Amino acid sequence: MNRITVVGASLAGLRAVQALRREEFDGEVTLIGAETHLPYNRPPLSKSVLRGDDDVTLPGAEELGDHWLRGRRAAALDTADKIVTLDDGSEIGYDGLVIATGARPKRLAEHPAGVHTLRTIEDSLALRAELEGGPRQVVVIGGGFIGGEVASTARSLGHQVTLIDSAPHPMLATVGSDTALWLAAHHRRNGVELVSGVRAIGFEGETRVEGVRLSNGVTVPADLVIAGMGVVPNTEWLAGSGLTVEDGVVCEPTLYAKGSTDVVAAGDVARWPHGLYGDSLVRVEHWATANDQGAVAALNLLAGPENAKPYADLPSYATHVHGARIQTAGLPHLADEVRVLAGSVEEDSFAVGFARDGRLVGAVAVNAPKELIRLKRRVVAGEAL
Ligand SMILES: Cc1cc2nc3c(=O)[nH]c(=O)nc-3n(C[C@H](O)[C@H](O)[C@H](O)COP(=O)(O)OP(=O)(O)OC[C@H]3O[C@@H](n4cnc5c(N)ncnc54)[C@H](O)[C@@H]3O)c2cc1C
């Protein structure tokens, strides 16, 4: 293999390039990235950056030097002739291809001024400028990880915050009912007005947002809105490539694109059969998964499909909401049985085990990091609940 092309210059793409260098791959590596910055860390964008800390450094990013195409977008892929076509019509060939184009926020049809999504450093700085502009009526749409963090940060900066979530309680599907009920109470205790079980369907306001219209006919007043309604994988450029694209690039357990011998995918864009979960197809939007998969996918490309190793690390995520640490591991949403295994919900410190067919498939911990470490081991071992 003489030439490896990596599309997407963020966490997974960077880790792929670094892995190739570590393996002393002596062919040509071309990295194509739509953003103009060095690869940076996204988790601080909904946390410390909003509070004024600009550090989003991703270790190793500086090693890229200038040997990559910044501000350039892949527009099409021809897997027969092994060519990536860029947005200016130029063509980049490859012997091996790493797809690491991540995901972008979902949007309601049109976003007037004052409605923000959060994915890039520009998004975060624009939101920060608004949050610094004095007390506001902030509406957060979506109570998932990012929505919860933004609601928490906005409260700590002194804003009025309404959190709208379509589920009966925020994060119900991700963390189960014990934690979701606790989280709803935690938001309320910290001054967030919670509106659950309704969807945001549009916005009021001519030149700037003045309210959020809900599916129950109510309009919530707003002068600043953050839409955290989940993401969609960036796969449009793969149309017509012959790759299987269904909510991400569908891969083999080794992260080779399904049926391909020279294309791999990694990070938020990859959907693969997870060995710990009976080969159910999963797409994970977590930092650690993108970090690890970038390297694994690149090394598997070098090894070839015959010698490639499956990727089956446990997904895990940590978030802070109003000072509480919430951690998840595995895939709690697959469970048919749930039990609080340690601590107590009333004391804001507990761990929950999630099982399917009697075996642990996931865990959630609130202010109980040591319990999560123990439970992670038990999930990996497939122990009984
Ligand atoms: C605000 C925020 C907070 C987060 N907090 C946490 C957290 O606390 N913990 C956690 O585990 N995870 C967190 N995450 C998720 C984590 O950041 C992602 O899982 C990770 O960034 C995924 O990396 P990636 O390289 O797969 O994709 P991305 O980071 O999405 O990068 C994809 C890159 O590809 C580029 N691209 C897209 N299309 C093309 C194209 N056609 N051509 C060329 N380039 C293209 C994009 O511009 C982008 O630079 C957070 C994410 C956000 C947005």
From TrEMBL:
Q: Which residues form the FAD/NAD(P)-binding domain?
A: 3-294
User: Record keywords: Oxidoreductase included?
Assistant: yes
Q: Which prosthetic group or cofactor does it need? A: FAD
Q: Which InterPro entries match?
A: FAD-oxidoreductase/Apoptosis, FAD/NAD-bd_sf, FAD/NAD-binding_dom, FAD/NAD-linked_Rdtase_dimer_sf, Reductase_C
Q: Which residues form the Reductase C-terminal domain?
A: 322-381
Alphabetic keyword roster = FAD, Flavoprotein, Oxidoreductase
Q: Which domain of life is it from?
A: Bacteria
Stated name of the protein: NADPH-dependent 2,4-dienoyl-CoA reductase/sulfur reductase-like enzyme
